[in-house]
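Run log // design_07
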């Protein structure tokens, strides 16, 4: 018999961009409605590099999500000059649960990012010691490397040596997009995991050009060939505790996406669970959905599982063209599952 509904322990989102100011007010409720906790990325302008900035940002998020039972988990933006003592202090004070590597120039607001991985070796040494999670935007930035190859090259040149140098550091390869990433993480030791977005489960690179240029399918790392989408799907639904939910919801104003130099990022928060559960359903893997959405992440981060539950029902849902003035993932399309508030 086909399952008509699925109830799982309350899930978390292990990778979100909530922005700041008016945009934060607009987007935070969408994440807080579906998820109990979220790892909040620090790529604001200016980036979140001090404990005080992170703690003030957390307060602004709590206020934007007031009315929801929602806990933002904060991250530190790693720069060439990051002070290991500041990292350790923020971690000890319970402000930072992780720190994020943006290779300089790799993506949105990464200009203050790391120019050479060796510059943060002292920080990584300290994080390994104190058990602080290292979140990785895994792409090289060399302009001579094809943009579709930058994740695979990062794994060879940066990540593989890094895992030898810091064998006990907990690392999350964020938003994986390739067969190489899925295979690397699956065969790595237990301290290495990955997040997976809905768009990398649904789209291959043809989506960028379907009937014309499609800015709302553009994110970084960019969507890849079908072969890679299938490998990432297989990893997500496999039941392996190394793979967990991280939407990488990354809202930008419509004009900023529909531009001659459009921003990278997909706003997938409003229908995130519906989008993911559809993939698990299509793969005949609904039994593994709760692990991916609600269990593997907290276990990796060493945090308690959430109490409470959420339900999704098999029902057609029409995604509107815009949500709060922003174009959401699956805009104007139909999904087969409905999130029950
Ligand atoms: C993110 C953003 O807009 O902040 N964009 C994206 O395409 N994913 C940055 C990031 O996670 O790379
Ligand atoms: Zn991101």
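design_07 sequence
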């Amino acid at each position: 018999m086909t399952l008509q509904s699925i109830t799982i322990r309350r899930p978390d989102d292990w990778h979100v961009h909530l922005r700041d100011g008016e945009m934060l007010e607009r987007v935070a409720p969408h994440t807080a409605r579906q998820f109990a906790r979220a790892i909040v990325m620090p790529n604001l302008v200016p980036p979140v590099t001090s404990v005080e900035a992170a703690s003030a940002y957390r307060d602004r998020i709590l206020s934007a999500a007031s009315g929801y039972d929602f806990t933002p988990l904060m991250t530190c933006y790693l720069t060439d000059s990051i002070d290991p003592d500041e990292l350790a202090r923020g971690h000890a004070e319970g402000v930072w649960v992780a720190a994020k590597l943006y290779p300089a120039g790799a993506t949105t607001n990464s200009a203050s990012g790391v120019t050479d991985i060796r510059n943060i070796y002292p920080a990584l040494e300290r994080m390994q010691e104190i058990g602080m999670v290292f979140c990785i935007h895994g792409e090289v930035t060399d302009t001579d490397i094809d943009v579709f190859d930058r994740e695979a090259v990062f794994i060879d040149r940066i990540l593989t040596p890094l895992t030898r140098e810091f064998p006990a550091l907990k690392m999350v390869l964020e938003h994986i997009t390739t067969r190489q990433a899925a295979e690397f993480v699956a065969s790595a030791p237990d301290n290495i995991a990955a997040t997976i977005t809905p768009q990398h489960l649904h789209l291959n690179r043809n989506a960028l050009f379907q009937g014309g240029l499609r800015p709302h399918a553009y994110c970084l790392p960019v969507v890849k060939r079908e072969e890679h989408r299938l490998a990432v799907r297989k990893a997500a639904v496999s039941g392996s505790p190394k793979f967990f939910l991280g939407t990488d919801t990354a809202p930008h104003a419509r004009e900023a996406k529909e531009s001659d130099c459009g921003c990278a990022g997909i706003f997938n928060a409003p229908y995130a669970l519906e989008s993911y559960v559809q993939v698990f359903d299509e793969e005949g893997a609904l039994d593994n959905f709760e692990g991916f959405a609600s269990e593997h992440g907290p276990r990796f981060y060493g945090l308690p599982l959430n109490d409470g539950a959420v339900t999704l029902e098999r029902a057609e849902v029409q995604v509107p063209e815009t949500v709060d003035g922003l174009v959401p993932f699956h805009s104007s399309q139909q999904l087969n599952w409905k999130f029950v508030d």
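The mean pLDDT is 98.
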